[in-house]
Amino acid sequence: QVQLVESGGGLVQPGGSLRLSCAASGIISSISAMGWYRQAPGKEREFVARISNGGQTETEDSVKGRFTISRDNDKNTVYLQMSSLKREDTAVYYCSAGTTNGLVYIWRYWGQGTQVTVSS
User: Fold this and answer.
1) How high does pLDDT run on average in the chain?
2) Mean pLDDT to the nearest integer, 2-26
3) Are 109 and 2 in contact (CB under 8 A)?
4) What pLDDT, in 10s, does the model give residues 48-90?
């Protein structure tokens, strides 16, 4: 089992920045990728970004150039640096962990979510 705990959400003005963190614990060796998803009110959960153990990253088009995913393997933590935030980025952000063969990602674990609200 792997446990994921997110932190760093909050209220920020449009154009501002936030950094989300997700600390993983448990059988870390069982996972080979971590990622971020988000879910806005009334919408389905959507992909935001992901990173493999090898450092390969992918970011959803609407946040590309504004959001950056990174990881600290020593701390078993993945980060999502969010800049130039827009009102439409408001959502609950979820951390995910799972396995990948480089092409297919299977998310096995999810965090409890952290709220990000972009508002003036």
Assistant:
1) 95
2) 96
3) yes
4) 999 998 889 999 999 999 999 999 989 999 999 999 999 999 9
What does the alpha-carbon distance between residue 120 and residue 118 come to, in Å, rounded to a whole number? 7
Residue showing tokens 């969010």: 82
Rounded Cα distance, 73 and 88, in Å: 31
Look at residue 72 and give its three-state secondary structure: strand
| Kind of pairing between the strands at 91-100 and 114-118 | antiparallel
Residue type at 2 in one-letter notation: V
Residue 96: strand pairing partners: 35, 110
Which residues have C-beta within 8 Å of that of residue 26, sequence separation ≥ 6? 1, 2, 3
Give the pLDDT score at 102. Answer: 83
Count of Cβ atoms closer than 10 Å to residue 80 Cβ: 27
- Amino acid identity of 71? R
Residue 115: what pLDDT? 98
99 phi, psi to nearest 5 deg: -125, 155
